[in-house]
Amino acid sequence: MATTTDPTAAAAPAQPTPLSAEALFDTVGPAYEDAFAGLPTQAASIDWLLASLKDAGIHPAKTLDIGCGTGKPVCSALADAGHDVLGIDVSGAMITAAQQRVPNATFFKLDIRDLNATPASYDAATAYFSLIAGVTQDEIRAIIAQVYALLKPGGFFVWSTVPLPADNLQIAWMGQPLVASSLPPDEAVQAVRDAGFEVVMEEVSKFLPKAAEAGICKAEEVWEETHLFVYARKPL
User: Fold this and answer.
1) pLDDT, tens only, 56-75
2) pTM of the predicted model, to two decimals?
3) What ranges do the domains of the chain cover?
4) Neighbouring-strand partners of residue 14
5) How many Å apart are CA 135 and CA 130, to the nearest integer?
6) How would you label 173-197 residue by residue, b for 16+ Cβ within 10 Å and e otherwise?
7) Which CATH number fits domain 26-218: 3.60.10.10, 1.10.3720.10, 3.40.50.11720, 3.40.50.150?
8) Whether pLDDT at 80 is above 80
């Protein structure tokens, strides 16, 4: 009996194997800092956090940056203001860069899910675009709840993400294949509230990373990102 073959199926290229979060950011490396340099919403959130800590009379504050990357601009701004800063990242390349660039902060290669810290021991925590690669939607919610538990009453939390309805979705980001998860804006903000936080502000904006200029990928592999920034506080 004759058989037929679907030519489109035969011609379809195989999807590349997605990178783990660690391999992804080891590959991108410190050039990530250049690609996102000048992000105004991030600068504004750092200013808000520094002002909030000052207004609350917390100095030096014990702070945690989840997915710290090269340590700039977040850890450097907090450390330069006199705060006690711990930055963690799953990428060894990023931690090496951070240790060199921000000597007045402490850095460890560590996944937030493996952080063994005393509850209610931090005054502030930040997570800039770090709860996307290598996590599920349920894990994102669980990490936000973990951050809530780590903060002292009155502690501050800044979270930014690319708010999409995605759960273990394989995508290409800056030319690199990865499995990503995120939450759409309303669900993301609600996840922060569900953890127990008071949401102070939420903002959605657009940003085109300078990834091609930073040498990470080709210009056609860069897309304008939607960003969600959430400012929150743990009730006193």
Assistant:
1) 999 999 999 999 999 999 99
2) 0.93
3) 26-218
4) none
5) 10
6) bbebebbbbbbebeebbebbeebeb
7) 3.40.50.150
8) yes
